Amino acid sequence: MQRCGTRIAGAGPAGGTGARGGPPARDGRTGRAALPAPDTAALGTLLRTALKQGAPGAMARIDDHRASYDDHPTVYKAMEGVADRGTGDWISTADRFRIGSVTKSFSAVVLLQLAAEGRVKLDDPVNRYLPGLLPDDRITVRHVLSHRSGLYDYSDELFARSVSGFEAVRTKVFTYRQLLALSLKHPRTQAPGTAYSYSNTNFVVVGMLIEKLTGHSVRTAYENRIIKPLKLSDTFYVHPAMKIPGRYAHGYLTPDKAKSPLVDATEQTVSWAQSAGALISSTRDLNTFFSALLGGRLLPPSQLAQMERWIPAGTAQAYGLGLRRRDLSCGVSVYGHTGVVQGYYTYAFTSRDGRRSLAALANTSNNGAVHLTMLRTLESAFCGKRTKVRGTSQLPGTAVEYDLAH
Question: Which residues are catalytic?
Answer without folding.
Answer: 101
